[in-house]
Design a protein that fits this description.
By secondary structure, the chain is α/β, with parallel strands linked by helices. The chain has helices spanning 8-16, 63-69, 74-77, 120-148, 180-195, 218-226, 251-276, and strands at residues 3-6, 21-25, 30-34, 40-44, 83-87, 107-108, 111-112, 151-159, 171-174, 207-209, 230-238, 242-243, 248-249. It has one domain: 3-Layer(aba) Sandwich (Aminopeptidase). It starts with a strand and ends with a helix. It comes from Winogradskyella litorisediminis.
Length: 278
């Protein structure tokens, strides 16, 4: 499917008319691929690494420090699925997993981010992209609920496991802001599914719920608060697929995840749909 550069209005119009398309937003802030309209979607809101050039000289964090806190390769892990929404911009410009009031950082992970505070126009520029992204999220989930009554979103993230001073799982599910009474069985089945994924080099296969993160992200909350029949599964993989200190990606590990999710993820989504669809 050919990648097109489309305006916000064109992207939303395509969704409303159920067109299949592969687009990058006209400001290059996010991509959306819809190969077919199905009852599940994948998202990678921290996959982006772009950083506006006009911010470079004012930023105190290095390119590596930004990469370290991003979630590289999370889009690639789910790229084969029919609906994939992913960020292109770094969370250091604006964080799509935080609400608009907190999306543009002053400090990041204990370190001041800017040499001089951003002026209002710079913040407005970034927050406009944050707002546009969520207009697309709203249009997309509205369409999926309209078509299927119920749907599931796999919200893919990664985390830096080496900085923890205890044993942490390869996979973590954050569920503190979803309806666990209604969807608890699907949460557990997803945890079991993730624990079944075989990774090369003897990487451990462990999966836990609310162990390292609890699922407090704005992306999950936005969908959960606005759509009563959509489950968002905040899914974090430890960065066992790279050397987080040397900034080296292990493509064979990324590929192993992607190849197994290609089959495991739609199987889980179908079981969810069959259970909850009226």
């Amino acid at each position: 499917m050919k990648l097109q550069r489309l305006s916000l209005a064109e992207i939303i119009n395509n969704i409303e008319n159920e067109f299949c398309f592969h687009a990058v937003s006209d400001d290059y802030s996010f991509t959306l691929k819809i190969e077919s309209y199905v009852h599940y979607a994948c998202a990678a809101v921290h996959d982006g690494h772009q950083f506006r050039k006009e911010l470079w000289d004012n930023c105190l964090h290095t390119e590596y420090e930004r990469w370290y806190e991003e979630d590289p390769e999370t889009k690639r892990m789910v790229a084969s699925h029919p609906i994939v929404l992913a960020a292109c911009d770094s969370r250091f410009e604006y964080d799509l997993n935080r609400d608009p009031e907190n999306a543009v950082f002053d400090t990041a992970w204990g370190k001041q981010l800017w040499k001089s505070p951003l002026d209002a126009s710079e913040k407005e520029h970034s927050l406009k992209k944050h707002s546009n992204f969520y207009k697309v999220v709203e249009a997309l989930i509205s369409k999926l609920e309209e078509k299927f009554e119920i749907c599931i979103v796999y919200d893919m993230h990664s985390y830096n496991w080496k900085r923890w001073d205890r044993e942490v799982p390869t996979w973590n599910l954050g569920t503190s802001n979803i309806d666990n009474e209604r969807f608890g069985n699907e949460v557990e089945s997803w945890r079991v599914t993730l624990a079944s994924i075989n990774l090369p080099h003897g990487i451990k296969q462990t999966s836990k719920i609310n162990d390292t993160f609890q699922g407090n992200g704005y992306f999950l909350k936005f969908i959960t608060n606005n759509f009563k029949n959509t489950l968002v599964l905040a899914t974090e993989i430890a960065k066992v697929y790279c050397d987080e200190y040397e900034q080296i990606i292990y493509p064979e590990v990324v590929d192993a995840v992607a190849q197994q999710l290609k089959f495991l993820l739609p199987k889980h989504a179908s079981e969810f749909y069959n259970t909850h669809h009226n």
